[in-house]
Write a structure and sequence with these properties.
The complex is a heterodimer of chains A (about 140) and B (about 350).
Chain A (H helix, E strand, L loop, with lengths): L8 E6 L3 H10 L8 E6 L7 H9 L4 E6 L10 H18 L7 E5 L5 H15 L13
Chain B lengths: L4 H12 L6 E5 L8 E5 L20 H12 L8 E5 L1 H12 L8 E6 L9 H8 L4 E6 L5 E5 L2 E5 L1 H4 L2 H4 L11 E3 L15 H4 L3 H13 L6 H5 L23 H6 L10 H14 L9 H5 L7 H15 L27
Helix pairs in contact in B: 8-11
The chains are: A alpha/beta (about 140), B alpha/beta (about 350).
Chain lengths: ~140, ~350
């Protein structure tokens, strides 16, 4: 069972950096696990904590929020707000007993296709031993 | 607890001169020992005001209602509202000012200090009395509680009866006021977040089952939301009223609209609802304990909010409700905010 299990990751990627970074990985034909469902958002700062809770509730095994590096935000400071808010979300999810590895955040620029593939590879590798996420999932 | 003779004098003067619309305070309740919110419009009623450890309510919620009422009136009465606040309640006023929900001129703050005491926890009291009904709860000269029941008086140490949040209170005197009754004294406090340790020391799996067990009971009555002075959004995510239904809206569209959170009292949905509420109160919750008190199923909601208060303190050095000029916790940032969790 454990070997067949493929985790499903929901990735909120900011339009200007991380989404372009994942695109670069795609057009450069880099290989990475197909477990990720990318969702393009305008800015990592626009990711409401509700998106994350809702993704877990609707069956995500892991959630990734990725934005521009600090200082590179298209909207100047969106990623700084995200960093503060999502830090609290991470602590809260840990507090109610969700495994730490299930929620991750990263900075990926439009040029970092390799970094993006590496993050997804690591994420999948970390999620596999945990098994399916049941803590927040509706009707497991 | 502070004496409120000077507060009563001031309240009378304010009402007589018509400087305030009305005064929200505490009066004798109809349910035995517990005080009740009291609205005073005439100066002769001011003597009905009481101030003792049974004044558990956070009256700031009524300021939110007042603002709503004012918004509906064509020619609203612009005079301020007088309000009696404890230390914790005054911090709620600070947060509302910080968020510019109310204006400083909308409110005349009559501060009362708890002076090393605090308010009674009704669950603790019920446990102590084991079925007996309390008639009065008073404080004697040695800062001990004297509970009067049908069978006589019972004396208790302050710590046995005070609410957990009062034992962890950072400032048991109002931080903002137009008039202050009582001294600005603090009770010694060595562990401001001590009550969290019990849950934090559990393993992740145990924490998960703890919260599952607690939140399974939730019946989604939203009493926590109604009692909270900070829950003032016009539109709440759980109400799902944000679909503009026109003549052209198809049944399919209505059915397909985004349900972020369902309204069923299912345990994972309950958890998501309470997580959303907790994160909305991050850096805003002033630990007045109204949600927990209003909860008909005694869910320890305070532990969720207190945890985020602790994280806000530890991660960002942010203390809620002390300075109305500061920006709110998540509407500001610093370059040096921690980012060790980010890859």
């Amino acid at each position: 069972m454990a070997e067949d299990y493929e985790p499903r990751i929901v990735a909120f990627l900011c339009k200007w950096c991380s989404s372009a970074g994942s695109d670069l990985a795609g057009v450069s034909r880099m290989e990475y696990p197909p477990n990720v469902v990318p969702i393009q958002v305008m800015c990592s700062g626009s990711v409401s904590p509700l998106y994350i809770f809702s993704a877990f509730n609707k069956g995500a095994d892991g959630v990734l929020v990725s934005g521009c590096h600090p200082g590179d935000c298209h909207y100047i400071k969106g990623n700084y707000y995200a960093r503060r808010r999502l830090n609290l979300v991470k602590k809260l999810l840990e507090y109610v007993g969700l495994e730490t590895q299930r929620f991750q955040m990263s900075w990926v620029s439009a040029a970092e296709g390799t970094k993006f593939t590496q993050i997804i590879k690591d994420f999948v590798k970390e999620l596999k031993p945990l098994g399916p996420q049941t803590k927040l999932r509706r009707n497991p | 607890m502070a004496k409120i003779e000077d507060l009563k004098e001031e309240a009378k003067k304010l009402l007589r001169e018509g400087k305030v619309k009305y005064i929200i305070g505490y009066g004798a309740g109809s349910n035995g020992w517990l005080a009740a919110p009291l609205f005073i419009k005439k100066p002769e009623d001011v003597d009905k005001l009481v101030w003792d450890p049974t004044c558990v309510h956070n009256l700031v919620r009524f300021l939110v209602d007042e603002k709503r009422r004012k918004a509906r009136q064509k020619q609203p009465d612009k005079r301020p509202v007088g309000i009696m606040v404890k230390g914790c309640d005054s911090r709620a006023v600070v947060v509302l000012l910080q968020e510019k929900f109310i204006d400083r001129s909308d409110v005349y703050i009559l501060g009362v200090s708890c002076e090393k005491m605090g308010v009674v926890d009704d669950a603790k009291l019920a446990k102590k009395l084991a079925g007996k009904k309390a008639k009065r709860v008073e404080v004697d000269a040695q800062d001990r509680f004297v509970v009067t029941t049908e069978d006589g008086k019972i004396e208790m140490a302050a710590e046995e009866l005070l609410a957990e949040r009062c034992l962890e209170c950072k400032a048991n005197f109002p931080v903002i006021y137009d008039l202050l009754s009582g001294e600005k004294t603090k009770r010694p406090l060595d562990k401001p977040f001590g009550s969290l340790e019990k849950i934090e020391s559990l393993s992740a799996a145990d924490r998960s089952s703890f919260w599952k067990e607690q939140l399974d009971r939730c019946i989604r009555c939203y009493a926590c939301r109604s009692a909270c002075p900070m829950c003032y959004c016009d539109e709440c995510v759980v109400d799902s009223i944000n679909l503009a239904v026109t003549a052209d809206t198809t049944a399919d569209e209505k059915a397909q609209r985004i349900h972020w959170i369902q309204r069923s009292a299912e345990s994972s949905e309950n958890l998501v609802y309470h997580l959303v509420r907790a994160i909305h109160l991050a850096g805003r919750c002033i630990d007045c304990g109204e949600c927990e008190r209003a909860c008909p199923l005694d869910i320890p909601l305070r532990f969720l909010n207190k945890k985020l208060e602790k994280e806000a303190k530890e991660l960002f050095g942010y203390e809620v409700g002390f300075d109305p000029a500061l920006p709110a916790l998540i509407s500001c940032f610093r370059d040096e905010d921690p980012q060790d969790f980010i890859r």
